[in-house]
Amino acid sequence: MTRLAAAMALALGLSACAVPEWQQPGTPLADVERDMGRPTLTEPLQGGGQRLLYSRQPAGQQVYHMDFDAGQRLVRVRQVLTLANFQALHSGVDTRETVRRMFGPPALVERVARFDGDIWTYRILDNGEPRQAHVHIDPAGVVRRVMFTDERMRDLEPPR
């Protein structure tokens, strides 16, 4: 009896979870917001549409763009925290604002002695491996460099 109750509670809990990838094209914006909650950012799109950005940073490794047409219907869902999207940033061209619009707020903002500016760090998955993308932004707000490092995860075994 206890197992049945636990299984039913789990099923009910999972059905209440809204997952961006499960949202269907054509779904009204109001339904998506009701299911997903408040977006991290909202940006206007050309043609009268809008993009809702849902970020799982700092703990997660996903940022979703949910694009809606002018009729407020879902057109597409895209996970944008990818190595290719960070590699597409142009040093000296992209800015703090373009990075924010694409990826949302970073998981971490740091400074180091060898760079005059902020380093925005995002947690990503690269072929299933946890990595970090570090976007170096100078004091004028211009992207100067993007670097990648492996994310150090906690050891599963205690030190000896």
How many individual helices? 4
* Percent range for β-strand residues: 35-45%
CATH topology value of the largest domain: Beta-lactamase Inhibitory Protein, Chain:B, domain 1
Order of helices and strands: HHEEEEHHEEEE
The CATH architecture name of the largest domain reads 2-Layer Sandwich
Basic shape: globular
Instruction: Indicate the CATH class of the largest domain.
Output: Alpha Beta
Classify the secondary structure makeup into a structural class: alpha+beta
Can you give a write-up of this model?
By secondary structure, the protein is α+β, with helices and mostly antiparallel strands. The protein folds into two domains: 60 residues, Beta-lactamase Inhibitory Protein, Chain:B, domain 1; 68 residues, Beta-lactamase Inhibitory Protein, Chain:B, domain 1 (2-Layer Sandwich), CATH 3.30.1450.10. Helix content is 22%, strand content 35%. The chain contains four helices and eight strands. The protein has a four-stranded antiparallel beta sheet with strand order 1-2-3-4, sandwiched between helices. A hairpin with a 5-residue loop joins β1 and β2. The longest helix has 15 residues. 18% of the residues are buried.
